[in-house]
Automatic annotation (TrEMBL):
Transmembrane segments annotated in the record for this chain: none
Region of interest (2-C-methyl-D-erythritol 4-phosphate cytidylyltransferase), ranges: 1-213
Gene Ontology terms, MF aspect: 2-C-methyl-D-erythritol 2,4-cyclodiphosphate synthase activity; 2-C-methyl-D-erythritol 4-phosphate cytidylyltransferase activity; metal ion binding
Keyword Transferase belongs to the record: yes
Record protein name field: Bifunctional enzyme IspD/IspF
Site (Positions MEP for the nucleophilic attack): 141, 193
Biological function: Bifunctional enzyme that catalyzes the formation of 4-diphosphocytidyl-2-C-methyl-D-erythritol from CTP and 2-C-methyl-D-erythritol 4-phosphate (MEP) (IspD), and catalyzes the conversion of 4-diphosphocytidyl-2-C-methyl-D-erythritol 2-phosphate (CDP-ME2P) to 2-C-methyl-D-erythritol 2,4-cyclodiphosphate (ME-CPP) with a corresponding release of cytidine 5-monophosphate (CMP) (IspF).
Keywords per UniProt: Isoprene biosynthesis, Lyase, Metal-binding, Multifunctional enzyme, Nucleotidyltransferase, Transferase
UniProt keyword RNA-binding, yes or no: no
Residue ranges of the region described as 2-C-methyl-D-erythritol 2,4-cyclodiphosphate synthase: 214-374
Organism of provenance: Halarcobacter mediterraneus
EC number, as in UniProt: 2.7.7.60, 4.6.1.12
Gene Ontology BP terms: isopentenyl diphosphate biosynthetic process, methylerythritol 4-phosphate pathway; terpenoid biosynthetic process
C-alpha cells in the first residue's frame, strides 16, 4: 500500500448549480459523477485508502455503488467535511479533491504525487492572463493565481492547520495560515469546477446519461381503526374510521414511496422513516413523500409515470379518484396525465373483502435526469 489517501468531497448542496440534480449525482452513462471521478483517479495511483465524503441523507445510497471506499458524513462547510474525513486518514500524505472538478487530467494527479516532498502542500494553479482590477485598482496580474484541486498535503500539517474556527476556502490557505510551505504546479483549464449550470458547457469529458428506464414496485396494507381521520393519497376521506399506523396511515402514499425507492434502488420506507422513531408518530405522510421526492431528484432521477391500484371493499374510492390523482401529481411535480389511479374491490374475499383494511400496489417508472438538455 502507498502512503497517500484520497479524499473526494461530495457533501455539498449544489445550491449555485441551480439544477434539480446535485452535481455529484449527474449520470454519465450509468455512473454517478462522484463514482466517475473516484474511479478515474483510483486508476492512476495505488492509494492507501479512498474516502468519499457525503451528506447524511445520501450516505447509505452511495454505499450501494461501491464496497471498496470508505464513506464519511460531511459537515456544513467544505472545511468541516474535510475535517470529518481527515479523522479517518492515517497515511503520511493526503490528496483532497472537489467532486465538482470532474475532468482533472492524469498529468496533474501524477505531478502532485511526484512532487509531494517539495512542500507541506502541493497545489495546482492557473496564472491569469487578463487585466485584474481589485477594489477599483489595477493590480499586477503576475501576483494573481487561481487555485485548483486536488491538493496534496502532509496529513499531520493539514490536520493541524484545520484546528481553527477560521473558514478557509481550500486546504492550501489553511496551511499557509500556520506558515506551512506551498509548492505550486501548473493547473489545467480541464480541471474547471462545476459551480454554475453554464460550467457544463465548458467541461468536455462528461458523457451523457443513459436513456434507461427504472421500474419499482410498492405494496402496503393498513387495517382500519375507528374514530380516526382517514387519509388516502393525501386526501381526507369522509368516513368515521381511518387507518391504524405509526404515521397518519396513508397507505397509498406509503406504497408510492416504496415504488419510488425501488425504482432508484434505495431500499424501502422503513430505512428512511423507521416506525420505532417517535419523530414519525402520527406524521402527515405527505411530508414523508416530499422528503423522498427531494431525495430522488437530488440523486439524479426524473419521474416518468406512476400507476397504482387501491384494493378496498370500503370506502368507495371513485368519488375521490380525481382529487387523489391531482394531489399525487402535484406532490411529485409531474403532469397529472402521468399519474393513474385504479380502484377495485376484493369481491368480498379475504381481509379486504371482510372490510378490515385496504391494500395499495404501485408501479413507478423513473429515468435519469438529462442534464445535457440544460
Ligand atoms: N458542506 C460541504 C460543502 C461542499 N463540499 C464539497 O466541496 C466541493 C466544493 O464545493 P462547491 O463547488 O461549492 O459545491 P457545493 O457546496 O455543492 O456548491 P454550492 O456552494 O453552490 O452549494 C464540492 O465538491 C462539494 O461537494 C462538501 O463536501 N461539504
Ligand atoms: C477548493 C476550491 O476549489 C479551490 O479553488 C474552491 O475554493 C472551492 O470553493 P467553493 O466555494 O467551496 O466552491
Amino acid at each position: 500500500m502507498s502512503n497517500v489517501t484520497l479524499i473526494i468531497l461530495c457533501a455539498g448542496n449544489s445550491t449555485r448549480f441551480g439544477l434539480q440534480a446535485k452535481k455529484q449525482w449527474l449520470r454519465l452513462e450509468n455512473s454517478p459523477l462522484w463514482l466517475f471521478v473516484a474511479k478515474k483517479i483510483q486508476n492512476l495511483y495505488n492509494f492507501d485508502k479512498i474516502i468519499i465524503t457525503s451528506s447524511k441523507e445520501e450516505l447509505n445510497y452511495m454505499k450501494n455503488f461501491n464496497d471498496e471506499y470508505e464513506f464519511v458524513v460531511g459537515g456544513e462547510t467544505r472545511q468541516q467535511s474535510m475535517k470529518n474525513s481527515l479523522q479517518k486518514v492515517e497515511s503520511k500524505y493526503v490528496m483532497v479533491t472537489d467532486v465538482a472538478r470532474a475532468c482533472i487530467p492524469k498529468e496533474i494527479i501524477l505531478s502532485l504525487i511526484e512532487e509531494k516532498e517539495k512542500a507541506d502542500c502541493i497545489v495546482p494553479v492557473l496564472n491569469v492572463n487578463d487585466t485584474v482590477i481589485y477594489e477599483e485598482k489595477t493590480i499586477n496580474r503576475e501576483n494573481v493565481k487561481l487555485i485548483q484541486t486536488p491538493q496534496l498535503s502532509k496529513t499531520n500539517i493539514l490536520k493541524k492547520a484545520l484546528e481553527t474556527n477560521i473558514e478557509f476556502t481550500d486546504d492550501s490557505s489553511a496551511i499557509k495560515a500556520i506558515k506551512g510551505t506551498i509548492h505550486y504546479i501548473q493547473g489545467s483549464k480541464e480541471s474547471k469546477k462545476l459551480t454554475l449550470t453554464s460550467d457544463l458547457n465548458e467541461i468536455t469529458c462528461l458523457k451523457a446519461p443513459s436513456k434507461n428506464f427504472f421500474t419499482g414496485i410498492g405494496y402496503d396494507i393498513h387495517p382500519f381503526e375507528e374514530n380516526k381521520q382517514m387519509y388516502l393519497g393525501g386526501i381526507k376521506i369522509d368516513v368515521p374510521y381511518g387507518f391504524k399506523a405509526h404515521s397518519d396511515g396513508d397507505v397509498l402514499i406509503h406504497s408510492l414511496i416504496d415504488a419510488l425507492l425501488g425504482a432508484c434502488g434505495a431500499g424501502d420506507i422503513g430505512e428512511f422513516f423507521p416506525d420505532t422513531d417517535n419523530k414519525f408518530k402520527n406524521i402527515d405522510s405527505k411530508i414523508l413523500l416530499e422528503e423522498i421526492i427531494k431525495f430522488i431528484y437530488n440523486v439524479g432521477y426524473e419521474i416518468v409515470n406512476i400507476d397504482l391500484t387501491i384494493t378496498a371493499q370500503q370506502p368507495k374510492i371513485n368519488p375521490y379518484k380525481i382529487q387523489i390523482k391531482n394531489k399525487i401529481a402535484s406532490l411529485l411535480h409531474i403532469e397529472k396525465q402521468f399519474v393513474n389511479i385504479k380502484a377495485t374491490t376484493a369481491e368480498k374475499l379475504g381481509f379486504i373483502g371482510r372490510k378490515e383494511g385496504v391494500a395499495v400496489q404501485t408501479i413507478a417508472t423513473l429515468k435519469y435526469y438529462d442534464w445535457t438538455k440544460k
